[in-house]
Amino acid sequence: MHQWHLDEPLHEGDARSREHLAKQRGAYVMGRNMFGPIRGEWNEDWRGWWGDEPPYHAPVFVLTHYAHDPIEMDGGTIFHFVTDGFDAAYAQAVGAAGEREVLIAGGASTVRHAFAAGVLDELVLDIAPVLLGDGEALFEDVEDPGLEPVDVIHSPKATHVTYRIGR
C-alpha cells in the first residue's frame, strides 16, 4: 500500500509527495493505530513501526486510552502518549512546536477529531490502488469542510490530492 514512497527509484510525482511528507515539522499528533498494531494494554517492547530512528525528528503526541511513559528514539523523536483526548494532544503539540507547524499524521479517527476541532487548513490524501476490505471512514460524521483541490499529482502507484479546507 505504501510502496509509492518506499520503492526506489521513485516516480517523479511520488518523489514530490514523499518530499512534502518528509518535510520537518515542529510536532505531530497521531492515533494509536498509526503508532502500532497493539490493542488494549501496551506491550512494552513495541517502539513503533519505524525502527530506532523514526522519520519525525520532533515530538509526536499519540492518542491512546492506555497510559504509557514517553519513548525517546534516535534522531530527536519522542513519542508522548496522551490519554486526555485530541484537544489535549493538539495543545501539547502546539506548545512543543513553538512557531513551527503541527502535522496531524492520522489515522482516520484522529483526522475526524482534527476536523471537529477546526484545526486543519489543508488535507493531503495519498490514494493507492489497493483494496483492503474495510477500515475506518475518513469523513464519517464530518461536517462539510468545503474541500477545495489545490494540487493533484499522479503516478502508477498512487494519486496525491491536496485540498484547502474552506469551512
Strand content: 25-35%
Give the full name of the CATH homologous superfamily.
Dihydrofolate Reductase, subunit A
Major β-sheet annotation? 5 strands, mixed
Strand order, main sheet: write it out: 3-4-2-1-5
Concise description?
With 167 residues, this protein is an alpha/beta fold. It has helices at 3-6, 12-22, 32-35, 86-97, 108-117, and strands spanning 27-31, 59-63, 71-72, 78-82, 102-106, 122-127, 147-154, 159-165. Helices cover 25% and strands 26% of the residues.
Question: What would your notes on this structure say?
Answer:
The chain has 167 residues and is α/β, with parallel strands linked by helices. The chain has a single domain, classed as 3-Layer(aba) Sandwich (Dihydrofolate Reductase, subunit A). The protein contains five helices and eight strands, in the order H-H-E-H-E-E-E-H-E-H-E-E-E. The chain has helices at 3-6, 12-22, 32-35, 86-97, 108-117, and strands spanning 27-31, 59-63, 71-72, 78-82, 102-106, 122-127, 147-154, 159-165. Strands 3-4-2-1-5 form a five-stranded mixed β-sheet. Helix 3 links the parallel strand 1 (27-31) and strand 2 (59-63). The model has no long low-confidence stretch (mean pLDDT 90).
